[in-house]
Amino acid sequence: MKRLYPGACVVLLVLAGVLCALIRPAADDFYYYTFCDGGLYDYLRSSLLHYRTVTGRVLVHLILCPLLQFHMWPFRLFNLLLTGGLCWLCACLCAETRPQRPPLFAAGLSMFFLMGLETLSDGVLWGAGSLNYLFPTFLVLLYYAGLQKYLSGGAGGCWLAIPAFLCSATVEMTGLLTVLVILYFLLTCRERWRSCRRAALLNLCAALLGYLSLFTSPGVKQRLEENSAGIGLLQRINVNFSLFDRKACGPEGIWVITLLALLSAAVLLRRKRPPVPALFLLLALGVALTGTGALSYGVWVALLALCAFFALLGYGIWNFLSGERLVPLCMLCTTVSLAVCLVSPVAGPRMMLPSAVFLTVLTLRTLALCRLPDRLLALPVTLLGLSAAAVLCFYIVNFAANARVIDQNDSRARAHRDGTPLQLTCVPDERFGGATVPSAANFGGPYLEGMGLPGLELQCTDPTARPIFREGRPLNQEALLRGGRYYVPVRLAASLPDTSVRWELASAVVTLPEGEYRFHQGDRAANRTPGVGPSVRLSAPVRMIDSRIYIAQQDFENLFHVELSLQP
């Protein structure tokens, strides 16, 4: 039985290594890659420009940009080591005894691959740009472990102000969590901090200074103002919620969820005795598999997942009153990171990575507190491990298909010598690897610069494209084959009577006489209003291909009451 857990860890890490070997530059990676082209001076200049005009991710770029310069192999190894190190740190934090660490490590790896891949849906976890969120989250947990060790040892403390500043100066999503960790320690360990007030104050000031430095550069301020112009805070929350609700809940259940949250917390606090451990183990696993999107087959399944989440919130409150500290902290960090997602002017699926990581810690700690017998513990770990291995194999097959096309494109670009437009072939499926083939509108310039072809025109062709006809007339648009079904561009709706199409707040909006439909990449529903509100279920997720929004042909015909035909 003891050999089961190390064997599961080895299998998962080997599969992850194979997947990392299939990584190709995607989206932002084309831009980061060019930072080192001009040597050290050009790298420093580019990093400073990026810090002042985009965001304060200079610490991540110190690792990311040089690694990308070496044809992705050092990054692939670093990505694998970071994933393993993060899950091992989670296991060490959650384990009460050393024998608990191997099973928790195996469970942590399984949950990370299940939640990370599915939460991000597009597989961008394996794009270099995801380090912007994954690496700072690792630093936050490492800082928590450092504080914990310092408090137990009672020596040192001032030196922790340096990592406090660095952790909080990374990304707006994770920097705030560093401040939160310090405040939490100040609240829960007042007696120990009292003996070293100078160190506590220095750590807090350093963390606040690091976080505030993210928003002091004029470029960042301008970017935030541009993304927030003409939109109020409540509308922004609604819009951002529409980006994430398909991974957490349907809009119909939000008020029911809020009510059940209050009821579950009230019941648990009223009893004031330990809840059944097995019940909360099942709830934690439910959160891990459904609340983060690994299973999202409708409102009611997601509703059950969020009920489990809020029941765990009540569990965290009870643990706090009973002396437990890690579970309430992870509940707090998860809630805060999701809240930042809702209010941030710049939102995207990768911003859910901190929530996925802290939900992993929470579930592992719940698993450790249950103190299950070894044979009984092996059952959930085995099920999680098999599920994670299946997901990794699924991604390996699809990444391999994309990698072959990307390598052919790169060979074509390196061999291109004349001034004619560079023709690239679209990958078989954009969901696996993000925007791995650049277009004129999507990182085309940095890609051509990296290939030594600046100033050329970039064109993308798709071998699956088929002309679209309506009532025998060509519509000058093409349908693309993805995932076994054909997709048509949403802007095709502009050819219908009394219908217009526009781009608004990261969504394609189709306006008809009877109302609107809003389509956002990755959603399995078309919203009828901005943010939370009525929606229409789609048979397949919305896709973005070559910077255009596409929906399944069947969904297009059902929504707009037209019949399309495709020419062979």
Structural class: alpha+beta
If you compute it from the alpha carbons, what radius of gyration comes out, rounded to the nearest whole angstrom? 24 Å
N-to-C terminal Cα separation, in Å?
57 Å
Q: Share of helix among residues? A: 55-70%
Care to describe what's here?
By secondary structure, this protein is α+β, with helices and mostly antiparallel strands. It is built from 21 helices and 13 strands. The protein has helices at residues 4-21, 28-33, 39-53, 58-69, 73-94, 101-120, 131-153, 161-168, 172-188, 190-194, 197-213, 218-228, 233-248, 254-271, 277-291, 299-321, 326-343, 353-370, 374-415, 444-450, 553-560, and strands at 422-425, 458-461, 466-470, 473-482, 485-489, 500-504, 507-512, 515-519, 525-527, 535-537, 543-545, 548-552, 565-566. The strands form four sheets. The chain has a six-stranded antiparallel sheet with strand order 11-12-5-4-3-13. A three-stranded antiparallel sheet has the order 6-7-8, with no helix packed on it. It has a two-stranded parallel ribbon with strand order 1-2. Strand 7 (507-512) and strand 8 (515-519) form a beta hairpin. Mean pLDDT is 77; it is low at 246-262 and 288-299.
